[in-house]
Specification:
Largest sheet: 2 strands, antiparallel
Mean pLDDT: 86
Strand order of the largest sheet: 1-4
Low-confidence stretches: 1-10
Number of strands: 8
Strand content: 5-15%
Length: about 550
């Protein structure tokens, strides 16, 4: 009888390869095999719009990588030094260490200017991609149950990203960024009672103080990125947990996902797309100068750079303050600057309205079901109208935020532009909402005609009695499914006003408001009934002509 010794080259049931032994040891303690088996084969739909979220992720990764490089050379200090670097026009000029170190990065560190510009362009693309991604989620209804929390995570990422960008472009302490910080300080001072205390705490004394660069630096590289990284991880975990949404189509239901597995197909595509995004951002940074601080010089409180504009995502708040009338209230020895304080309130209120919209729509429509199939925007005219109205409001205020540049570049009156923005602030969203809703209803009618009568072929046929008609081609089953698979919810019905005994029923005012709003969402003026199977059979059988 033979026995197996301890130094035998193989053991029954155990791997012989060292790498396999390490994998087995690790799996026995972390359970990675089970985790990988259940997630690496997860299916992801293949649609171009889902790449918008990937652009957000990849630009954030690029921001972290370039930000780490920049921290090696940046000095977050407001101590004053005299510049003697290679940029001759500023030789001998007194400036802060923060500005001097940014000049050093731009002109003396190998690849420093390119990395600076990649970092700044990545920030702009990150915010832009998040807004477009959230608009895709909004217009398609991807925020509905069970993804309300993920919508809040994405909204918080957008909110934090805007302030991370603001703290970032404030760090060089140049004239443009200093003007932006001064703008923020004025907004803080407009807050009643606590405004002056907040300003003193933030700047360490009277503006500009000597501490705000160091404080902004800590917030910019530690606090905000840490919060955003945590939210990003939570966002991705919920995407895995809830499974991915998908557009209606053949074989797609609320209980399955049709697409490619995460490994190896989706990961290969994602890896290639990451380098594509990185390459495009690097190319933009190499050929398009952004934030040339050397042309503006260091910040001085007694100067303002001409044509000072914030990054585009702050144009909303800038426009609010620029077009707001300079109202003030003086009472009890104090002045309340409404011209700044009211816009300061409107901005967070608008952001909060975006955050809670999924819960408002769920309450208004009474929809408590889970949704994994996306809506076509045309099939939800009211929601689509709200989205377009919000975008219109944003672009109107963006014009207000750059009213001086519009006036100088197009030779217009700055007062005329300001009054145009003031009027459009109230009128333009209403008009675009109505137009968008009518367009959506028109597209619904077009889809209904396509289902019942087919697609126009362009072929003209003459009938025996002399009439000319266009031949219509019937749609395929897949096309019919896409045009008719959507649900058409019915508005909330409060029932009869009296019960069976003729006694008036008591209905709460809140329920009446809910029913009225629900009628606005799903009433007869907000959706076109999709064709029924009976109508389709009657038409296709020839009896409906």
């Amino acid at each position: 009888m033979s026995t197996m010794t301890d130094d035998a080259p193989t053991r029954r049931g155990r791997p012989t390869n060292p790498g396999e032994r390490v994998a087995e040891w690790t799996d026995g303690r972390l359970g990675l095999y089970k985790l990988a088996k259940s997630n690496l084969r997860k299916i992801f739909p293949d649609h171009w719009s889902f790449m918008l979220g990937e652009i957000c992720l990849y630009s954030f990764v690029i921001l972290i990588l370039t930000g780490v490089y920049l921290t090696l050379f940046f000095h977050p200090s407001m101590n004053e030094v005299v510049y003697h670097g290679p940029y001759a026009p500023l030789d001998g000029v007194q400036m802060s260490e923060a500005y001097a170190s940014t000049m050093h990065i731009s002109f003396e560190v190998r690849g420093g200017l390119l990395v600076r510009q990649i970092h700044h362009w990545s920030a702009l693309i990150f915010i832009a991609a998040m807004i477009v991604h959230m608009m895709r989620v909004f217009f398609t209804g991807a925020f509905r149950k069970p993804r309300e929390l993920n919508w809040l995570f994405g909204w918080t990422l957008l909110f934090l990203g805007m302030f991370t960008g603001f703290t970032g472009y404030s760090l060089p302490d140049d004239l443009l960024s200093g003007t932006g910080v001064r703008f923020m300080e004025g907004a803080i001072l407009s807050v009643p009672i606590v405004g002056t205390y907040l300003s003193m705490f933030l700047f360490g004394g009277e503006f500009p103080g000597h501490d705000f660069v160091g404080r902004f630096y800590s917030v910019h590289i530690l606090l905000l990125p840490g919060l955003m990284a945590g939210l990003l991880v939570a966002h991705l975990i919920l995407v895995f947990f809830h499974k991915h949404t998908q557009f209606p189509g053949a074989g797609k239901t609320e209980k399955n996902v049709v697409g490619a597995p995460l490994m190896p197909i989706y990961m290969a595509k994602a890896g290639g797309f990451f380098f594509l995004v990185f390459g495009v951002i690097a190319a933009i940074a190499a050929v398009a100068t952004i934030n040339p601080i050397w042309t503006m010089g260091p910040y001085r409180p007694d100067q303002v750079s001409t044509g000072a504009q914030p990054d585009w995502y702050m144009g909303f708040s800038e426009g609010l303050i620029r077009v707001m009338p300079g109202w003030e209230i003086r009472a009890w020895g104090h002045t309340l600057v409404l011209g700044v304080f009211i816009p300061l309130l409107i901005f967070p209120l608008v952001m909060m309205a975006i955050a809670v919209y999924p819960f408002i729509e769920s309450w208004v429509t009474g929809d408590k079901n889970e949704h994994h199939l996306l809506d076509r925007p045309r099939n939800r005219p009211v929601r689509t109208g709200f989205g377009v109205a919000w975008l219109t409001e944003y672009f109107v205020l963006l014009i207000g935020g750059g009213n001086d540049l519009w006036a100088t570049h197009f030779h217009l009156s700055i007062n005329a532009i300001t009054w145009f923005v003031r009027v459009s602030f109230f009128v333009a969203p209403v008009i675009t909402f109505w137009i968008t809703k009518r367009i959506c209803l028109g597209l619904q009618r077009r889809d209904r005609d396509k289902v019942l009568h087919g697609r126009e072929s362009g072929i003209i046929k003459r009938l025996p009695h002399g009439e000319f008609i266009e031949v219509h081609e019937p749609l395929s089953q897949q096309q019919l499914h896409v045009l008719t698979a959507h649900e058409q919810p019915r508005p909330i019905d409060l029932g009869p006003e009296t019960d069976e005994n003729g006694v008036a029923r008591k209905v709460s005012p809140i329920a009446k408001v809910q029913a009225k709003l629900s009628q606005g969402f799903y009433g007869e003026h907000s959706q076109i009934p999709k064709p029924t199977a009976e109508e389709y059979e009657e038409i296709t059988s020839g009896h409906g002509h």
